[in-house]
């Protein structure tokens, strides 16, 4: 163990034993130790099956949080997180960083990417550490890199405490400049005026964060998807997966317990949000068919955000300013704020529109400006290209091209491929059970389908076994026929010897068939147990609802 590990004592071994046990229980569990390759760093990374599958659905934008070490936590805990379809934090992996050299951070990102089957994110948000920036540039060169805005704001307050105390409006003006700028030109102008107002033109710290403004000021990031649909207050750096579970006093012995607790709590929150989204109807504020459509498609939190944009169209009329072929250009502005108008280009033939505010590109939620143009052009329902599946109630369903693409992305490495196939089948089976348990009719259909599927799997295995035996006979394969065996095609072989060899091969084939039947029976037993557990859970949920109503 290195010095960092020695300080934590036997807790590191406790974590390693825990990870080995989880991997033994689930082949889809992934963990790696940097020291296993001969290094003395000993950094540890892990991701469970749920994290890996969630990344498949919600891995478009991620956050790497390594602030625990910088903030003096006892445990150098690092996390990869994102947002699920309810805009809740979702975990994509964890690490213990005993060494934060550039090589170690490169190893961490490469190992995490391997666990995620090489699927790179669209965007990543990290701390401002220079080594992390270099590691991201090395491992994820095509991914848009954003520095954590809240870390920079917090650091600005700390470094300019004397200015904040002398000028009470300083913080408000700074936030307005950073968050309130609608265009790059507006930000540049406001930043210059801000520095002059507080006589900070020569301040080295402000010069340094300005030089990096394209990596943290929102107006520069809007052309890239980051999934930020929450308000700044809700989207604060405190809104993390382990907030309230891991803090500066958490020991490495307590870490695993808190890790499991956080997983359980967030899983329960997701289930509750799922139930709210599927079993309750939101209050509609307009007679628009588009609002009703969105209420049926989006999760509750995302629908509320969409509804806000839709209602705002009433105060943001669209004014046509140009028309050329199939393209019509509009200015959309709030009453009395025409100087802040946004430009929307609408394609009549394709029913597509793009807005200068870039809200859809940044968050995946269509903006009020485009919706206002849709109203003017009598577009009554949302075109499919403006409905991001990752924000819908069915974000994690296995239907459609998403699953097919995922199957194609399974790694070629035999062990990794086996792991991913098991994980994929497990997730599909769970969703199948959930659907099949919704009613007696669905249940009966599901059971019959499982029986039919089991027969097909057994037939496929038998076919493969038969094919293997035939190949062995033709090619003299040593896997079935030993070197000492006599080739059936040898003209010098007696009839009795040939018949004996056929009987031996037939017996082996019968043995394989019996094994297939055992596997089929085991599969049906497992799925039946899952169905029974789901039915029990459904009953408990129904009883809980009834008790709440009472």
TrEMBL record:
The keyword Transmembrane helix does not apply. It is found in: Nucleus. Pfam families: MULE, SWIM. Residues 488-547 form a coiled coil. One of its GO terms (molecular function) is zinc ion binding. InterPro entries: FHY3/FAR1 (IPR031052), MULE_transposase_dom (IPR018289), Znf_PMZ (IPR006564), Znf_SWIM (IPR007527). It comes from the Eukaryota. One of its GO terms (cellular component) is nucleus. Residues 342-378 form the SWIM-type domain. Keywords: Coiled coil, Metal-binding, Nucleus, Zinc, Zinc-finger. Its main location: nucleus. GO terms for biological process: regulation of DNA-templated transcription. Belongs to the FHY3/FAR1 family. Putative transcription activator involved in regulating light control of development. This is Protein FAR1-RELATED SEQUENCE. It comes from Solanum stoloniferum.
